[in-house]
Automatic annotation (TrEMBL):
Compartment(s): Nucleus
Any one Gene Ontology cellular component term annotated for this protein: Scc2-Scc4 cohesin loading complex
Domain annotation Sister chromatid cohesion C-terminal: ranges: 980-1154
Start-end of Basic residues biased regions: 1375-1386
Record family assignment: Belongs to the SCC2/Nipped-B family.
Taxonomic source organism: Oopsacas minuta
Residue ranges of the region described as Disordered: 1330-1405
Biological processes, Gene Ontology terms: chromatin looping; establishment of mitotic sister chromatid cohesion; establishment of protein localization to chromatin; regulation of gene expression; replication-born double-strand break repair via sister chromatid exchange
Pfam family, one: Cohesin_HEAT
Gene3D superfamilies tied to this protein: Leucine-rich Repeat Variant
Protein name: Nipped-B protein
Length: 1405
């Protein structure tokens, strides 16, 4: 007792000086002691060093004094010596628990104080000895570490103040890196468990070699380390991720993340063998966590992240010089080389002594060493390095113990599915060899003779070679050899139902593949990558794209293999996915073959009208590809770029693609409206290269068809800058006289004519020769007289540019116009006189109708042609003739050509479109069944809007060019837009009605027209919403995408979606009926995808709009007679298959379905009772309440004299709407795993944060929304009223509804008859009634008896009120809804059982 009291006094004295004097000087955070520490000290006098306040008896405060630095230093080292002496005392004596606890507190405190390295080393020895000798106090020491970490300031919890051994010998700076002090402390404590019993040190060698007790002791110590480490890691992991830390709690996550990183850092250092054990334990813990579906989501996410980090970094460290693509690991060539050199330097005498216990040859060259001998020598050299460094003996014991333990495990030959913690020896060694190695390891641990003889070579084992030795010995570590095991588990996790888990699994795979990109070549991983590329979640798709991108950075040869799936993702709905794909393809485009290169460029050009950030990426990529600075002498690069450009232009030689190329080049060359001089020079070089290619092909005798790519590129470049082609017009002019016979030649000539028309107006400043001008006019006139419509339009456009800007030869135009107008006059007269020669003039009539309209478009005919005697303007006369021929059905092409000519005519004279004749003609054509006439009218309207827009742009450019800073072109814009707006408003109803057709061409034209109308803002957008909602359900993908974009922009700017939702849904249903041609039912889903989900997705982020949209759809069931059952089935399909992402969305729909059912169900049952005369019968019999069995008595109902068959049919018809809602409610509860308790607890007026929790539906292939009774009835009779044949069938159908209503709505499905089990259980059996909710943090289940108890009580109460034989009149449905809501809210707190259920579910949520 005296000794214990003395030790307690010594410990109290040491604690007092450490807290009072040492810690306050070493660490600034200890200079102001907490109040409780001051109260523990003697009240007579408390000394505070460093300027703190001292307190003396009597309550008078004085300023404390500072000790001299020399005294403080001396005290510091004396206390360090005291801790070392205490460590020796602990090791040699057995102390009481009280003293051990005080020593533990004294030993751990210095590790959480800065700037006291000497004291920490002494404390470390004391802590190690306590941890090693007193097993019962190990968990207390670890708990004390957690408590000390919690008391530290947040900025000091993750400091890396423990410096590792330098990588180069003799260095004083900590070049080897640093780790957390808590990491070093925990690993040192765990390693201290591996010790050799003191009583074994004096035994004979033979006794040690054959002594099984030493062997068992080492294996037991390693098992204890594994057990203690697992307990520590499990506790720390749960403290970090089990629950999100509140403001008052300590966040251990940074400490844990640094702890993992520290273990990876020390994996290959010989002084920290426990790091490999802890990493293996940690990976097993993480594997069990993320594969456990009952674990919390936060823990599963963290486990996935850390597993990917650990196995990737470990493989990176172990495989720095390793080139094998095998999932398992073998020693690297560089390590083998280093070890070979080291073994050659070992004398044969030393080698003989080391290998003597293995019974090997005494003399052996390194070339003849076997694998086992090398392993033995490497183990010896590693222990030699540790012993010569005078490291703690527990490190050597740990290495030997782990080797012996692995040998014992391999001897037992237990092949289990679980991974062993530290398999450091490869399996397959014979038992004799294992026994030899076991004896060899035990001799290394106890015999010092080999180490003494090898002391001369210890200097050759440096820290770097020691790392190679460790890497060689740990080549068979389970964490590395079972790399494929962990990889396969990560791959399986990408198929989880939870979006966050799939995303985190893909991120972990990304980190692994970034270390070893060869793994992506495996077929399984490729399959999963392709599957996740089409995942429903944009986060998963983005992470998968990033995974492929990381792999392509290191393996560019895979770019072609993954090109197909990456190019598909350029059309992804997520902007982030599209941007990431474009970045990846931008980096890989130079490594692709020419065909793939061109295809990629084409697809990127087609996305040039993307969102602004995506568009900038595309423009930047083509800027580097085509217009990066180029040296003047690099002709090959010029040809290569020119070829790349004309290949892309040729691939997009269609109206949409050609426009995209033009827009792209405009963004590249004219970002600010002015072409940069450097880019102009590059374009000039490209143009020269193109013209040179054309001339070379001409010399080779090639036709214009082979020149299409070059001519099309010249056309595009001339649209951007016409001056690029001016110097080449003379060389290209002979091609205008070419005789074209094939379609390819016509296309090539058309592009050349378009290029000429853009460049000819700039000839004024170049003063071309008269012979060139005359020859050009002659060629163009010949082309316009004898060629097809495509060449005629291009040649007249070019002729207009030449005549109006350069030659002013209007006489030529006058002659041409008079010739064709006279032909029309003559044809008109012959038509009036019914001449038989009219058919012979068909070609000239069609050409005249087409050419006259073009001439009126490109020339001022009223100025060129004088008025005739009747005073009618030539343009007015042309207008009347075109209108006349457009109404005459002379021959099939006449009306179409007249409409084409009118389109050209109206481009120059838009005011005439508002004439009654024009409005009548266009309206008739849009209502006509002829597809070609509809398309031509729509084309005319689209061209008119395009021309107005281009005209306004040119005028605005001229306005700014003239320096008009005051004012804008608003007035001009108003005049033009007023005319266009008036025109569109007159034709818009006909245009939108024309969309409802089965012809895709018509729908495509209308979609493009509406897009232009809304973009220019010519009308109020609300009337277009129903038509756009119908477009969203189109089977054509291009139409759907354009409609979604228009609706999204409209809803973003005007918030008008809710105003036209009902009409839009109805129009979409009508549209689908037209597409189906009346064959089959119209369903609102395809699989589990809703057809109206894009519309719902636009209002999803706004709670008010979202609720209004959903409530509108549910309220459609209020008026069954007006809507019809087929339409309500379409609505129910959409409500069932919307991909709801928030808990509040689903509960909101279920709640309002319940509200509707609570009113409509009892009302319908009352109506049935009245139609069958049951109420009158019950009153005659004197019954106060109607027996429910009477409604199921078919024979009595058939004999009823009071039956009204018409009312009965109406009741049956209305019952199908309620059946749809019953199925819908049951389906939503099942697929989102919601219990009845949770649904009844929902309060719509609760704050949004209460129910804004993520939720995801279960992915089950065979589960679909299928209301069997309604679908079967509609398939039998698809008319609006579901005509039934007999009263017996009517009764049977209503009784089916009644049983289903009672089973699902009242009893929760428990009392369903056998005939309806399939209907109800198809939703519940696949998931179970108590499935957990797929939302973050939800891992609880409500007991089954609690799930149904509260709803039963409530339902029975409702049943009494609603079916008690009295009809409740509700003149105002809104008041009834309010009363039901108030009753439901009151019932939540009416009984303790309901309150308990509600609290449990709220806790879950």
């Amino acid at each position: 007792m005296v000794v214990e009291e003395i030790l307690e006094s010594v410990l109290e004295h040491a604690r007092f000086h450490l807290i009072t004097n040492i810690y306050s000087e070493m660490d600034p955070s200890y200079r102001y002691a907490p109040l409780e520490q001051e109260e523990e000290m003697p009240s007579e006098f408390i000394i505070h060093v460093g300027g703190r306040i001292s307190k003396q008896k009597g309550g008078r405060a004085k300023k404390g004094f500072s000790l001299n630095r020399w005294d403080l230093t001396l005290l510091y080292f004396k206390l360090a010596e005291l801790l070392e002496s205490l460590s020796i005392l602990v090791k040699s004596c057995v102390l009481t628990d009280t003293l051990v606890l005080q020593l533990s507190a004294l030993a751990l405190k210095p590790f959480f104080v800065e700037n006291n390295s000497t004291l920490q080393l002494s404390a470390l020895k004391l802590a190690r000895n306590i941890f090693s000798k007193y097993p019962k106090h190990r968990h207390l020491l670890l708990d004390e570490i957690f408590q000390s970490l919690a008391k530290l300031p947040s900025n000091k919890r993750a400091l890396r103040t423990y410096y590792l051994e330098p990588q180069t010998d003799g260095g004083e700076d900590p070049q080897g890196g640093s780790i957390q002090m808590v990491t070093a402390l925990v690993m040192q404590l765990l390693q201290s468990i591996a010790t050799v019993p003191r009583e074994r040190s004096h035994l004979e060698t033979d006794e040690l070699i054959s002594g099984l007790s030493l062997d068992a002791h080492l294996i037991g110590s390693i098992d204890e380390i594994v057990k203690t480490g697992q307990s520590f890691l499990t506790t720390l992991f749960k403290k970090c991720y089990a629950t999100a830390p509140s403001k008052s709690e300590v966040d251990f996550r940074p400490i844990f993340e640094n702890f993992v990183q520290d273990l990876i850092t020390t994996l290959l250092l010989p002084h920290w063998p426990v790091s490999s054990t802890l990493l293996s334990i940690m990976c097993r813990l993480f594997l069990m966590t993320f594969t456990n579906k009952q674990a919390e989501l936060s823990m599963r996410l963290a486990a996935l992240e850390h597993v990917g980090n650990i196995i990737s970094q470990c493989r990176s460290q172990m495989s720095e010089n390793h080139t094998s693509s095998s999932p398992s690991y073998s020693p690297a060539d560089e390590d083998i080389s280093v070890i070979g050199k080291l073994l050659k330097s070992v004398p044969l005498e030393v080698k003989s002594k080391v290998l003597s216990s293995l019974q090997m040859k005494e003399c052996m060259e390194i070339e003849t060493d076997t694998e086992y001998e090398i392993k033995a020598l490497v183990s010896f050299l590693l222990l030699l390095y540790l012993k010569e460094r005078e490291e703690d003996s527990s490190i050597v014991s740990f290495w030997v113990g782990s080797w012996v333990r692995d040998l014992a495990a391999s001897t037992e030959k237990e092949k289990t599915a679980d991974l062993d913690d530290c398999q450091l020896v490869s399996p397959g060694i014979s038992s004799a060899r294992e026994q030899a190695f076991r004896e060899f390891y035990l001799r290394l641990l106890t015999d010092t003779d080999p180490f003494k003889s090898a002391s001369k070579i210890c200097y050759k084992v440096t820290s770097q070679t020691a790392t190679s030795l460790v890497r060689f010995l740990t080549a068979n570590l389970s964490l590395l050899q079972n790399f494929s095991f962990y990889l396969n588990h990560l791959i399986r996790m990408v198929n989880e139902t939870n979006v966050q888990l799939r995303t985190r699994a893909m991120k972990s795979l990304t980190s692994v593949l970034s270390v070893d990109p060869t793994l992506i070549g495996s077929s399984d991983l490729k399959t999963w990558v392709r599957t996740r590329m089409c995942d429903m979640s944009s986060m998963v798709r983005e992470t998968t794209v990033e995974l492929v991108g990381r792999s392509l950075q290191q393996r560019p040869e895979l770019a072609t293999e993954f090109y197909d799936i990456l190019s598909e993702r350029m059309l992804d709905t997520s902007i982030a996915v599209r941007k990431r794909v474009i970045r990846i393809l931008r980096d890989s485009i130079h490594k692709m073959p020419p065909a793939v290169h061109t295809d990629l460029c084409v697809k990127l050009v087609m996305r040039v009208q993307e969102e602004k950030s995506v568009q900038q990426l595309i423009v930047g990529m083509f800027q580097d590809l085509w217009f990066s600075p180029l040296s003047s002498c690099n002709k090959e690069e010029e040809k290569k770029r020119a070829q790349s450009i004309y290949n892309v232009v040729f691939a997009l030689d269609e109206p949409p693609g050609f426009t995209m190329v033009q827009e792209l080049l405009t963004l590249l060359l004219k970002p600010d409206g002015i072409v940069d001089q450097q880019k102009r020079n590059l374009c000039r070089k490209i143009t020269d290269s193109l013209v040179e290619s054309i001339l070379q092909l001409d010399e080779q005798g090639a036709s214009l068809a082979k020149m299409i790519p070059m001519n099309a590129t010249l056309h595009v470049l001339s649209l951007i800058d016409g001056s690029l082609l001016v110097s080449h017009l003379t060389a290209l002019q002979p091609y205008l006289a070419s005789h074209c016979t094939t379609q390819g030649e016509l296309i090539g000539l058309t592009h050349l004519l378009r290029a000429f028309s853009n460049s000819i107006p700039l000839l004024v400043s170049h003063k071309p020769g008269p012979q060139f001008l005359a020859s050009t006019e002659e060629n163009l006139m010949k082309l316009s007289m004898a060629s097809g419509s495509m060449i005629v339009e291009a040649s007249l456009s070019c002729l207009a540019a030449l005549v109006n800007s350069v030659t002013h030869n209007f006489k030529l135009v006058q002659e041409c116009f008079c010739k064709f107008s006279e032909c029309l006059e003559r044809s008109h007269s012959m038509l009036l006189s019914n001449s038989s020669q009219l058919a012979q003039l068909k070609p000239i009539i069609l050409r005249s109708l087409f050419t006259v309209g073009l001439l009126c478009r490109y020339f001022e005919i009223d100025t060129i042609i004088a008025k005739q005697k009747d005073g009618i303007l030539p343009t007015r006369r042309v207008f009347s003739k075109l209108i006349y021929f457009a109404k005459q059905d002379i021959f099939p092409e006449c009306q179409e050509k007249s409409l084409v000519g009118l389109g050209f005519f109206f481009l120059a004279h838009p005011s005439l479109m508002l004439e009654d004749e024009a409005i009548e003609l266009y309206s008739e054509c849009l209502s006509d069944v002829c597809v070609s006439k509809k398309c031509q009218v729509l084309t005319n309207l689209t061209n008119h809007l395009q021309e107005d827009e281009e005209r306004l742009k040119r005028a605005d450019k001229e306005w700014k060019k003239d320096g008009n800073d005051e004012g804008t072109l608003q007035d001009i814009g108003d005049k033009q837009s007023t005319l266009s707006s008036t025109m569109i408003q007159r034709f818009l109803p006909y245009v939108m009605n024309a969309f409802f057709t089965a012809e895709v061409r018509v729908r495509s034209h209308i979609t493009g027209l509406l897009s232009m109308v809304l973009r220019q803002g010519l009308i109020y957008p609300a009337p277009c919403i129903p038509c756009l909602i119908a477009m969203v359900t189109d089977c054509n993908q291009a139409i759907r995408e354009k409609a979604e974009l228009m609706l999204e922009e409209m809803n973003h700017s005007n918030k008008l979606m809710h105003t036209q939702v009902v009409l839009g849904i109805r129009r979409s249903f009508d549209f689908l009926e037209i597409l189906s041609s009346g064959v089959g039912l119209i369903r609102g889903r395809e699989g589990m995808e809703s057809k109206l989900f894009p519309v719902y997705n636009m209002v999803h982020n706004n709670r008010q709009q979202r609720r209004a949209f959903l409530l509108t759809m549910v309220r459609l069931f209020d008026d069954v007679d007006k809507q019809g059952i087929p339409f309500l089935l379409y609505v129910a399909d959409n409500l069932a298959c919307f991909n709801y992402s928030l808990l509040g969305e689903v509960l909101f729909v279920i709640h309002h379905i319940s509200v509707h059912l609570s009113m409509a169900g009892p009302t319908l049952i009352d109506s049935f009772q009245e139609s069958m005369g049951l109420k009158a019968l019950s009153s005659q019999q004197g019954q106060q309440a109607l027996d429910e069995s009477a409604m199921l008595d078919t024979e009595s109902l058939l004999r009823s004299e009071f039956c009204d068959d018409s009312r009965l049919a109406t009741s049956v018809y209305h019952s199908y709407a309620i059946m749809l809602l019953l199925h819908l409610s049951s389906f939503l509860k099942s697929i989102y795993c919601l219990t009845d308790v949770r649904c009844h607890e929902y309060i719509p007026t609760a704050p949004s944060k209460v129910y804004d929790k993520l939720i995801s539906r279960k992915l089950t292939p065979n589960l679909q929304f299928e209301p069997v009774e309604v679908v079967e009835a509609l398939e039998l009779s698809q008319d609006a009223k579901l005509v039934l044949r007999s009263r017996n069938e009517l009764l049977q159908r209503f009784q089916e509804f009644y049983k289903l209503y009672k089973a699902i709505e009242v009893d929760g499905g428990e009392s369903l008859p056998e005939t309806y089990q399939t209907t109800y259980q198809s939703y519940t059996e696949l998931f179970g009634e108590t499935s957990e909710l797929s939302e973050p943090g939800h891992n609880k289940q409500i007991p089954k008896d609690n799930q149904m108890k509260a709803p039963k009580k409530k339902s029975s109460k409702t049943n009494k009120n609603n079916t008690g034989g009295k009809h409740i009149s509700t003149p105002n449905p809104k008041e009834k809804r309010k009363s039901i809501r108030s009753k439901r809210k009151f019932n939540y707190f009416e009984s303790s059982e309901d309150s308990n259920c509600g609290s449990s579910t709220n806790e879950d949520m």
